[in-house]
Design a protein that fits this description.
Shape of chain A: globular
CATH topology of chain A: Glutaconate Coenzyme A-transferase
Radius of gyration of chain B: 19 Å
Number of strands of chain B: 14
Strand content of chain B: 15-25%
Number of helices of chain A: 7
CATH class of the largest domain in chain B: Alpha Beta
Number of strands of chain A: 14
Radius of gyration of chain A: 18 Å
CATH topology of the largest domain in chain B: Glutaconate Coenzyme A-transferase
Largest sheet of chain B: 9 strands, mixed
Number of domains of chain B: 2
Structural class of chain A: alpha/beta
Helix content of chain B: 25-40%
Order of helices and strands of chain A: HEHEEEHEEEEEHEHEEEHEH
Order of helices and strands of chain B: HEHEEHEEHEHEHEEEEHEHEEHHHH
Largest sheet of chain A: 8 strands, mixed
CATH superfamily of the largest domain in chain B: Glutaconate Coenzyme A-transferase
Structural class of chain B: alpha/beta
Oligomer: heterotetramer
Largest interface: C-D, 66 and 69 residues
CATH architecture of chain A: 3-Layer(aba) Sandwich
CATH architecture of the largest domain in chain B: 3-Layer(aba) Sandwich
Chain lengths: ~270, ~300, ~270, ~300
């Protein structure tokens, strides 16, 4: 398969996200790039992937294309279930979601995410430096899905030792059983996809670990763009660049209007 | 009852207002326009994920703080997904102009559900682990059955709930197509509920399949037929998002986040809300071509004969 | 209106029950005679009565006649709401039911009802002398409806100082605010209809009080059939016997098959 | 998968079995017949209000205790409404042959709902005041928000749920007509769920109106088409109660409450369950006239074209 030479940072994230998803699994899909990645997965190796959208729909075939919103009418047509938010989250809290696919504006080494505020916490909570949209359903997915897949654009200012606010808990402080002790369910962050590579969380310490570098990046370049010390997997490999066909699918079939994947060339 | 009368009668200064829909889906846009026209003081807004409804209320506060003011927001998410962040949210929050309490989508939905169930609280797992439990009224207890931590969330019982649905009868029995979002819970939880609907139909038609009724009449105080009542948001079976209009409106607010002028935004309110009699007059400003195109888009992916 | 001369004990209960119901109110209807009384009310003075059946239906017109069960398909046709048991009871717990209409096998002077067991409680709970069906939804109605209407056939063995088991709490021990203190909602028992008369619960003491005697009964005859001391309202009147038309309605339109109202003449 | 295989695979001795339907509406009668045929030991039965399903299981225990035994029941009501009390309930309880835990309809429904929601408990007001809270595992706490007493009920998560529905697809997406009773909650709460359905249809037809789907496929382990699977109980859109048959069956058990012989009841089981291969053979014993009359009664008051 021919390798693409003009894929964008968002496009490689989407391809990586799609590849991590497994066929016939239930994935609770957050808005934005997770929706794009899930649709790409359905069109490629995982036609039986079962997306859940927090507004209520489970398992739509998505044959009318990419939803603009997780409450989009496109998520409803042909769905196997469609009640409302409570039903979607109850199903997740019950343990039916294999994956949760979420983003955040800031991440720490244990995969905790912030999508609430930047600034001085707790004193400045009511007058943040930058007010972000808020949790949406991300913190619920974080607390109840079996495994979560995180997407955060790689940027030293966003990869911090200490978050301004923990919106969506990951491995908390990394101590053994921390999630269980806090009352949560599921194994927590499974993979993190950034603009520079793919990461997992090392079994014992639950610390972020480089697994694959994206083309053009090295362990060193990634560490240099990260505000804490990264672990390095014993067998770090380069993630294959998207193929021409994958990029075509994204641009022509998955997100032809550039709703979430911007059109600017890399 | 007209929407004007319903808003005048059921929305009071200082009220906690529950907002139905989800992001830009079935937001009670027409009702919010009417609230802005009439003015409001010291409201608390409660919602899971909302977009145009709070944006229109907040924008009004930004241009006419004497006429419209929000005091507090209990929310999970305020933004427009594909159409971008909410500039009004940033403007009000970053300037410390309102109180707020962060929750998650499930937290807020569950809080409305507790209210709808007549319970003072509901347990959930959602806020455990992170900071939401620290900045909200969440109580974490050890479950008396399992011994493990579990969060108790206080019920939300708004003074008035604002809901837009596809169809209703004159008694307030409501049919919702597509996701219910958290509309039934908000209607049941609220002391009063104002429903706007695309179609007002006979009781016999509405009850012909009782399981289609998502909100039963005892939960509803006023029903008003307002076609396009959630526009420029979407309404299943009726119309898809008018993203262009949403983006244009946000672009009027955005400069104010960085200290820009309020003139353009003020002009928008003067033209589209203060300068018209009712929501029909606002919808009249859109071209028929665009309205029909948004209908066609919805009918295409909804796959249903009219 | 001509008075009936051959009405049965069940028929006068049904007429009394119907008359207590008010038009346009929401009544949560237990199985059996409450269903018959509600349908009679709808056919006479209360066409706008809104019945709720615990299996899920609210507000059906009941134009296909008397349901055999509160889960009967007849309750569903034309209903204004029909989810399931949780939804019906949540609506009640939320405070939407003006009346709850329930029966029991045993009652005390405070309107507490037993429909669980006869025998030695608590020691004999797991091996009762007579095992009754159980609460069904009665205890939920008792805890959450604004007012409850009780039906108990009058029998000295069923009107006891102390119940074998309190299934559906009424005014508890009659102390002021007892229901509120226990965490319940609503004003509790409003009327009791027996085979001998109609009773209310005196404002201050919450004790059972004779309000109306049925034809052929006196205050004395009723007291003699009661296992505790009854209060007597200052203005006890005789309840008018059912009219010929009311009896005809019951026999021909409301319960033509004698599902709940037995056909034996008095 | 056949019903025989599903029961053999998913119902184990010692299981807690959640029973769907309500009184004699949509009871999982066919599945219960198969359980009796295969035999079971030490079951716990969990239901809100049930009738023929526990009656058939208990009757089997009364005639063949070596083959069928119930250990415990968690319930709100066991009886047949217009068709009378349950003689098997009286027989087993008054002889101290089983453990039981009394709840109310809402209590049991809420317990299944807590299980379906993935929560360890749910608050309700139901059991306050009376003795149910004293004879059950209810915990009464002071609400941390209001200070008033509120009851916490432990979730019910049966090992296997038995549900009969009108229609399903091969994946287990289920459409329920008329009241849902507590079927969705039981299916979601149970570790495994066996669904029998009147109609097994294509995925495309079942999902043509997604909001009709009350039980989604992840909650279901086996789907078997069994026409008349709730008979002699009723099933909306399909058949009304066969009250005569229910009364006749109860009349076989009733004498045993007062020490009468089990011969007639034993003969019934031998003829109708042990002596046949499957539920179709049992239905075959009814006259076509009677089956059609029960269909006609339902179609009359259901008011729907087939």
């Amino acid at each position: 398969m021919t390798v693409s030479t003009d894929y964008t940072a968002q496009e490689i994230i989407v391809v990586a996200g799609a590849k991590i998803l497994e066929n016939n699994k239930i994935v609770f899909v957050g808005t934005g790039l997770p929706m794009v990645a899930s649709l790409l997965a359905k069109l490629t190796h995982a036609p039986g992937l079962i997306p859940v959208f927090e507004a209520g729909a489970m398992g739509p075939p998505l044959k009318h294309g990419l939803p603009i919103s997780v409450g989009d009418s496109k998520t409803g047509t042909g769905a196997s279930y469609m009640k409302g938010l409570n039903a979607a989250f109850e199903l997740t809290q019950r343990g039916f979601a294999d994956f949760g696919f979420i983003g955040g504006a800031e991440v720490d080494m244990y995969g905790n995410l912030n999508s609430t505020m930047m600034g001085d916490y707790p004193d400045g909570y009511q007058k943040p430096k930058v007010r972000l949209p808020g949790s949406g359903g991300a913190s619920d997915m974080a607390a109840s899905c079996e495994r979560t897949i995180l997407i955060v654009p790689h940027d030293k200012k966003k990869f911090n030792e200490k978050l301004s606010y923990i919106t969506s808990p990951g491995h908390l402080d990394g101590t053994p059983g921390a999630r269980y002790k806090a009352g949560m369910q599921g194994k927590g962050p499974y993979r993190l996809i950034t603009t520079k590579g793919i990461f997992d969380f090392e079994e014992k310490t639950k610390r972020m670990r480089i697994l694959h570098t994206f083309p053009g990046e090295t362990i060193e370049s990634i560490q240099a763009a990260t505000g804490f010390e990264l672990l390095v997997a014993p067998d770090v490999t380069q993630f294959a660049p998207p193929t021409v066909e994958e990029v075509r699918l994204i641009r022509e079939e998955v997100d032809p209007n550039g709703v979430f994947v911007k059109r600017a060339a890399k | 009852m007209t929407l004007k009368e319903a808003v005048s009668r059921f929305v009071k200064n200082g009220d906690n207002v529950g907002i139905g829909g989800f992001v830009n889906l079935r937001q009670p846009v027409a009702t919010v326009h009417e609230m802005v026209r009439q003015g409001f003081k010291d409201l608390t807004l409660s919602f899971q994920s909302a977009a145009m409804a709070p944006e229109l209320l907040a924008g009004a506060m930004m241009v006419r703080p004497d006429h419209c003011s929000i005091k507090r927001i209990e929310l999970a998410y305020w933004g427009h997904e594909a159409y971008g962040l909410s500039p009004a949210w940033r403007y009000l929050a970053e300037r410390g102009m309102i109180e707020f309490e962060d929750w998650s989508n499930y937290n807020m939905s569950a809080r409305f559900k507790a209210g709808a169930m007549g319970l003072p609280f509901i347990p959930t797992r959602g806020p455990l682990g992170g900071d939401i439990k620290n900045t909200s009224r969440t109580k974490v207890i050890d479950c008396p059955f399992t011994g493990r931590p579990i969060a108790l969330l206080p019920a939300s019982n708004p003074n008035v709930g604002l809901i837009h649905v596809q169809a209703a009868d004159m008694y307030g029995n409501c049919i919702i197509r597509g996701t219910d979002a958290t509309c039934a819970e908000i209607a049941m939880a609220s002391a009063h509920t104002i429903v706007t609907c695309e179609q007002l139909l006979s009781h016999e038609v509405i009850t012909s399949n009782p399981k289609d009724i998502m909100i039963p009449f005892p939960a509803v105080d006023a029903v008003i037929q307002v076609p396009y009542g959630a526009y420029p948001g979407a309404c299943r079976r009726h119309y898809y998002f008018n993203g262009e209009h949403i983006r244009e409106f946000l672009a009027l607010i955005a400069p104010m986040v960085k200290g820009g002028s309020s003139d353009a935004l003020k002009a928008w309110y003067d033209e589209n809300i203060f300068g018209v009699e009712n929501f029909d007059d606002y919808i009249e400003k859109f071209s028929t071509k665009k309205l029909l195109a948004d209908q066609a888009a919805e009918s295409y992916h909804c796959e249903r004969l009219a």
